[in-house]
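Progress narrative, work stream C.
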Amino acid sequence: MNKLQNKSPLVSVIIPTYNRANYLQEALESVFRQNYHNFEIIVVDDGSTDDTRKIIDKYQDKIKYFWQDNSGPSVARNLGIKNSQGELIAFLDSDDLMLPDRLSLQVSKFLKNPRLGLVGGSYLLIDSKSNPIGECKLSWIDRHRLKNGIHYRNFFSTTVVMIRKACVEKVGGFSSDFSFGEDWDLWLRIIQDYQFEYIITPIGIVRRHEDSIVGSMDPYNFVQWDELIDREYNRSIINSNYNKIQANSIRKKQISFMLANRGWVRSKKMDRGAREDVVMSIFFWPWWGLWRYRSVSRYFFDKKLLNHINIWRAFFKKIAKFY
């Protein structure tokens, strides 16, 4: 019978938090406003030093609360999963919000499909003062190529994701080796055995802070991204998910997307290396991102760069080692 087992609670909402006392109560209230009610809430405090505990005390009879030394969101989410009772796990960051029908929409997807491992969705964007700043959703093309597209870039924001707990128990939880891209690493492991779905209707509200924007530009994030690509390549070969030609093709596309993103970030810092990243991105995979070609046209007509043969020699050496 195509139904989940009837036990309570069906959904465990896991909220990792670190020094977000000013937003945590609003996040919790957004869960209590859900039109689906068969859930438990687990808050994992990642060593907060602010007034988080005062907020928790208001809800002590309504939530499960765990405290740990500051170890990062991956360890916090894993602790929440370990102590959860639900067959389905819904993640929510402590400064973000659920829209009222999020849980009901996601649960209905799982009830219809026993092979489903993950359901993500679109979300609205607000700034640190709760002013609306936009919406984030996948294109029609991306929504219809989740199985393949997830290998090239992370389609899912953790804060609006629901997963089947059995999937995590099978493939392992979030890797503590990564502080960036740890969610993508988990999705890539789940997709090998389970199906993904995407809800186009916004199901959450994600808060963009100045510190989160600056954090996304940390150069170390791209070091970790590169390491994640290598790990996925080796895993694909070892597990025989793909032959070597297929795995190399996927790896080149992943590197192309990573370089394009690094180029965009470096351009915001007025870093001259931004254009080199974009050119390399095109070399690895030329069939997407028209904006990259507009950027490259300026790159090739830069006389100072054309006159420095050493720059080009180093550039082509970087390309050659992947072929």
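Work stream C, second folded protein:
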Amino acid sequence: MCDVLDVPRSMYYQSLNKTISNRERENNKLTKRIIEKWVGEITYMYTLRHGWCYFASVMDLHTKKIVGYSFSCTMKSELIIQAQENAYYTQIQVKV
């Protein structure tokens, strides 16, 4: 894998034993349980077929996992709403 990523082997093994940064420590204090706080992000990318497309994601701050997402060729409010609804329904299924 190091050859594929063009990363020295020593750097790879150092990353396995990395310590928690101050920012990560502070973020861990922000939430005590799953589904307490979510953050969202929109990423745009250029495609040859459709031009600019947009990917909205929602991440749970406690687990640091993507819990919902949506993809569209237009950046409208429906993109974010769909990502939030996707996260909500995904987490409801997890809780039950």
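The chain has a mean pLDDT of 83. No further action is required on this item.
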